């Protein structure tokens, strides 16, 4: 267990706003031009930005740093969040379809966090899993552009699925902020 004096010093590479993750001109989430037109485009834009934020919070860390757990008894780590979001994307994909659900990626409850170990192969697989599951869910939802349409066995509105996805990423990006700061002191928006 780390003592308070063992904590890394807070830092940011940003110079314009030193409490931000990156300077506005260097932030890949900043877009030139007007905001998206329409509700669906806006929802997709927010989801894209939160996905990118999670990746940014993991950039530059090795397998040990990505797998480093937060304070006990929590099993949360940045790598665990990546694995968790891959699993959650698969769950959402299962909600969209009428067929048999795809099996869990990592097995039993909390296996996404418990299996987040400091091995490069586990890190590579986690990011690959997340990208694949995001693409599969995106493709399934692209077949349903009407946000009011109800899909899957439970007839959930597409709008609800989109908002729930954004909420899930936003919540976990907040966790990622704190986890990254504990790893190397890097802070940011």
From TrEMBL:
Species annotation: Streptomyces chumphonensis
SUPFAM superfamilies for this protein: DinB/YfiT-like putative metalloenzymes
Biased composition (Polar residues): 1-12
Residues covered by region (Disordered): 1-37
Protein name: DinB family protein
Any Pfam family matching the protein: MST
């Amino acid at each position: 267990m780390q003592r308070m004096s063992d904590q890394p010093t807070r830092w940011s590479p940003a110079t314009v706003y030193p409490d931000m993750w990156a300077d506005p001109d260097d932030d890949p989430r900043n877009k030139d031009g007007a905001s998206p037109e329409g509700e669906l485009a806006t929802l997709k834009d927010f989801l894209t930005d939160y996905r990118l934020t999670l990746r940014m919070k993991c950039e530059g860390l090795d397998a040990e740093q990505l797998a480093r757990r937060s304070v006990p008894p929590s099993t949360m780590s940045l790598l665990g969040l990546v694995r968790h979001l891959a699993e959650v994307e698969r769950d959402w994909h299962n909600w969209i379809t009428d067929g048999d659900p795809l099996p869990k990626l990592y097995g039993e409850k909390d296996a996404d966090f418990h299996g987040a170990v400091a091995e490069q192969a586990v890190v590579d697989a986690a990011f690959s899993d997340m990208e694949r599951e995001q693409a599969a869910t995106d493709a399934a939802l692209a077949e349903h552009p009407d946000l009011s349409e109800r899909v899957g066995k439970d007839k959930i509105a597409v709008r609800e699925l989109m908002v729930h996805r954004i909420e899930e990423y936003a919540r976990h990006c907040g966790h990622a902020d704190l986890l990254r700061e504990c790893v190397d002191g890097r802070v940011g928006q």
